[in-house]
């Protein structure tokens, strides 16, 4: 395990995510809440990935994206690429949200996840099941979901998300 990021000092953590219909943003909110709870001295900021203009003030970053057609959304991918040099200097964790069903499908990681792990030096890339509510979809998205026979429902595993955030907190504490 790595040395603690804060070395006993308050740690500044950015949690950023790109979300198309809000489900991935809810995962980011949950991760930020768990980090705040586990690291009371930490400063945990949460922002939409498309609003992040700088990452240099942070000691650690958690970056996530909804996955559509096997790819991260542009806002998250662009943040990772544009700030890759700065991100490579701090601990980074990536997460993807998107597989649906029981068991969640597709099984494979997003096609752009592996290069983003390398570019950012991420310690880990987690894939969490997502949520599909056809009533939130635009016509074309609804048509694709119907053609793929994608099931409606919230398939997010909050216990797994909480556990992952707990692992990040432990690593940041150096425990």
Question: How would you explain this protein's 3D organization?
Answer:
With 175 residues, the protein is α/β, with parallel strands linked by helices. It contains six helices and eight strands, in the order βαβββααβαββαβα. The strands form two sheets. Strands 1, 2, 3, 4, 5 and 6 form a six-stranded mixed sheet that branches. The longest helix has 16 residues, at 23-38. The model has no long low-confidence stretch (mean pLDDT 86).
Largest beta-sheet characterization: 6 strands, mixed
What shape does the CA trace take? globular
User: Which structural class matches the secondary elements?
Assistant: alpha/beta
Strand percentage: 15-25%
Topology at a glance:
Elements: E1 12-18, H1 23-38, E2 43-48, E3 60-68, E4 71-72, H2 74-82, H3 84-87, E5 92-97, H4 113-120, E6 124-128, E7 131-132, H5 139-147, E8 153-154, H6 158-173
Summed up:
It is built from 6 helices and 8 strands, in the order E-H-E-E-E-H-H-E-H-E-E-H-E-H. It has 175 residues and is of the alpha/beta class.
Short descriptors:
globular, two-stranded antiparallel sheet, six-stranded mixed beta sheet, single chain, 175 residues, 8 strands, alpha/beta
């Amino acid at each position: 395990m790595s040395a603690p990021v804060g070395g006993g000092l308050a740690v500044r953590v950015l949690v950023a995510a790109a979300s198309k219909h809000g489900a991935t943003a809810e995962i980011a909110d949950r991760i930020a809440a768990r980090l705040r709870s586990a690291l009371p001295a930490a400063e945990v900021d949460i922002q939409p990935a498309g609003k992040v203009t700088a990452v240099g003030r942070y000691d650690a970053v958690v970056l996530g994206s909804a996955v559509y057609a096997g790819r991260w959304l542009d806002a998250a991918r662009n943040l990772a690429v544009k700030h890759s040099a700065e991100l490579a200097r701090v601990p980074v964790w990536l997460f993807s949200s998107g597989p649906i069903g029981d068991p969640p499908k597709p099984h494979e990681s997003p096609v752009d996840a592996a290069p983003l792990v390398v570019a950012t030096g991420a310690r880990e890339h987690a894939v969490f099941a997502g949520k599909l509510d056809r009533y939130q979809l635009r016509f074309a998205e609804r048509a694709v979901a119907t053609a793929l026979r994608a099931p409606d429902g919230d398939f997010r595993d909050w216990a797994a998300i909480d556990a992952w955030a707990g692992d990040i907190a432990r690593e940041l504490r150096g425990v």
